[in-house]
Amino acid sequence: MPYFVDVILPLPLDKRFTYEVSEEEATFLYPGMRVAVPFGKSKIYTGIAANIHQRPPEVYEAKPIHQILDKEALITNNQLKFWQWISTYYMCAEGDVLRAALPGAFLLESEGVIQLKNKEHLSETELNDDEFLLVEALQGQSSLKIQEVMKLLDKKTVLPIINRLIEKEVLVLNQEIYEQYKPKKTRFVKLSENYRDEASMHELLDSLSRAPSQRDIILTYFSLTAKSNKPLKLKNLLKESKASPGTLKALIDKGILEEFYQEIDRVSFSGETTSKEIVFSKFQQKAFSEIKEHFAGNKVGLLHGITSSGKTEIYIQLIKEVLAAGKQALYLLPEIALTTQLIHRLQHYFGDKVLIYHSKYSVNERVEVYRKILYNPGSGQVIIGARSSIFLPFTNLGLVVVDEEHESSFKQYDPAPRYHARDAAVVLGSYFKANILLGSATPSLESYSNAQHHKYGLVELNRRFGDVLVPEIEIVDIKTKHKKKRMTGHFSDRLLEEIKRTLKEDEQVILFQNRRGFSPILECNTCGHSPQCPNCDVSLTYHANNNQLRCHYCGYHIAMQQKCMACHSTDISTKGFGTEQIETELKALFPDHKIARMDQDTTRGKYAFDKIIGAFEQQEIDILVGTQMVTKGLDFRHVNLVGIMNADNLLNFPDFRAHERSFQLMLQVAGRAGRTKKRGKVLIQSYNPNHQIIQQVSTGDYAAMYKEQLEERYNYKYPPYYRIIRFTLKSRDYSTNNTAADWLAKSLTNVFGEYVLGPEYPPVARIRNEYYKNILLKIPQQQSLEKTKEVANKILLSFKSIGAFRSIRVVVNVDPV
Ligand code: ADP
Ligand code: ZN
Ligand code: ZN
To answer: In this protein, which residues make up the domain named Helicase C-terminal (predicted)?
Structure first.
């Protein structure tokens, strides 16, 4: 009887593929090992062996696998189970999940491109003949396709060779572009080996008796290195010894001191941890005990704690206990809240038990974390990561913390799998019977309603730590201010007064504007035309720094126009405003103060974000203007004033969650003010000062917001009362897209009746020259989710079989946010 293996391929296929293996291979092979398999005419992919059996496939003849790539499983059984859950729940291919779940370096394929990683490293690495040939070829050219490697070595089975070289860190696969950013290198000095022992040290000092300034440097070196074991920066030695660079150079030339360069990795761990016990306030203590009670009852905990109430310290205490039991803790955060600040805070307690998994990390760094988790789970580990860290190979998970659980960025938008990391983490945790804690100052309606219905255990913490008061919130009616001519640009007189007062007291200001760019839209005052993106149905946005009009959807840009493109009138003006314009106005208003901006445009490199945060922390910046990025989890000691430039564009966003989101954003950004004894101040500028959400923000009244929004959701049939699946049809052909959308909507309506909405054009109905149309399926609580999805999948299958619709892509989004 032949043996077969079902393989998950990293492709959007709706099934696993079955391959043939020899009896010998079958005994060696375990589920979760990687196998190289042929697919299609000439391609080779890395797939994952899922199960080994003796049932031949019915509709095709199984091809033999190419090669087994691992000696032991790289994917755990729980991961395989989890992938299957994600693929079923979020209605996507298992192959899509595979791609999202594994660092790219694990997935060699014949289309891949390899490069040499580290030339200096090579001499120490032992290479066999094939490896040597390959490395030699790569020294001549910068990269090779894997297919070219097959030709070069005249072999078909090259993946194992490449794999080995990647493991030896000789090669890298599909190197990402942002890797090319080189972190800053710093100069360090150390004493030469020759003078390290007692006797030669004395000899050295004696020999320098006639060069007192050189002798001083050496003495300073001893005193500085005695205090700490950290490498000594050349700059610090100069400063402390008050010597001239020439004197220092003389010591280096004599070979007494040695100079070396080292990268300053901002997240690497410096070696010092604290054994300091956390002493909880009585409110924290109470919350902590309540959380433990819910855990004891096997309930997911929801910690609703206002900003600065000390939630993080509670997480730390919970993590401590899990690590003490030798288990793993996963600390999930939205990407932009995953800051150096927070990482340092955790490293302070947990040292090198902290592992970080982040999309800004290179493929190789991610591979390293993956392996550490797979091979050393017993040592106790805390993994801090953004949403994709739920895919790591946990074996021993004791705790999952989802911080800022209300954040919509936990949901992956594109590509599939369109999973919600918070919801998936709850499922993942259940495989391990791990404790799960969701935390937020402004929980999502979904989670809070789960708590109200006793599905989750609710814990409230509504005092700031250390008797710090919540900031005072003042609403400024800018409609009236405009009428009374009390506005300077986009600043009301009140906001300017408060900024001046704050700066005078040597404190810092954060200004929040939820739009980047200078002023979103250019408009002709004669004919009303505003320049549009040729590829998308949106107006172009003006960016002052490079004097361009840009599309935020596709990146299209043209030079700023002096005349209307339609009627050639020169009477054009800008409407709306973004962060860049606020920055420009501020520079004119406060020329003597340092102003910085934080948004997508200013934080592109790996370290750009950290640089701004660092400078702000060090008070090198007085006023920080930013988008959402300034609202997340940052803890600054000297921010006393927060200004929300315009609350209205948040509230008017066309989405059923817009009000909930505005409330969350405004309270989060308000929470950045006054985190020390001195009470902070928040100013909200708005044309609708009486809007219920603004009123609720001003009193921090979550309960009122929750009640009111929940009623709306009930009336309009939205989550948490109804679940939603959104189907988006995309095509370059406008009319076929419409026809197809009508067909799909009709087929769904036949089964689900009034619960199907659309087809409708989304607010931006064309992006990169593709037309979009949406259909919404609402699922009432009593209706089975599984059955609904089964039926929907059947309809989608028939849809795909219609030849005329072949060019249409259907994107399915379960629980869209
Ligand atoms: P949150 O996460 O709720 O916004 P944090 O955990 O950041 O709040 O706490 C706010 C501030 O109070 C931080 O600077 C933190 O170090 C401090 N803090 C919180 N709890 C304690 C504690 N038990 N002992 C000492 N400092 C604490
Ligand atoms: Zn015009
Ligand atoms: Zn565009």
So the answer is: 559-714
Judge if the beta carbon of residue 463 lies within 6 A of ligand 1: no
Q: Nearest residue CA, atom 5 of ligand 1?
A: 310
Q: For residue 565, which ligand has an atom nearest its CA?
A: 2
Task: Give strand ranges (E) for 404-455.
Answer: 435-440
- The superfamily (CATH) of domain 472-517+578-712 is P-loop containing nucleotide triphosphate hydrolases (3.40.50.300)
- What is the per-residue pLDDT across 748-802, written as a single tens digit (0 to 9) for each? 999 999 999 999 999 889 999 999 999 999 999 999 999 999 999 999 999 999 9
Q: 766: CA distance to ligand 3 center in Å?
A: 9
Pick the CATH number of 3-106 from 3.40.50.2000, 3.30.1490.190, 3.10.20.310, 3.40.1440.60: 3.40.1440.60
Asked whether 309 lines ligand 1 (CB < 6 A), one says: yes
- DSSP H stretches of helix in 232-358: 234-241, 245-253, 282-296, 311-324, 340-350
Closest-approaching ligand to the CA atom of 767: 3
Domains 282-466 and 472-517+578-712 share a fold: yes
465 lines ligand 1 (CB under 6 A): yes
Annotated ligand binding at 524? The verdict is yes
* Architecture in CATH for domain 282-466: 3-Layer(aba) Sandwich (3.40)
pLDDT tens string 613-646: 888 888 889 999 998 888 775 778 889 999 999 9
Which amino acid, one-letter code, is at 490? H
Q: How confident is residue 517, by pLDDT bands cut at 50, 70 and 90?
A: low
User: Rounded CA gap, 286 and 288, in Å?
Assistant: 5
Q: Which two tokens stand for residue 437?
A: 């804690």
Determine the atom of ligand 1 nearest the C-alpha atom of 441. 3
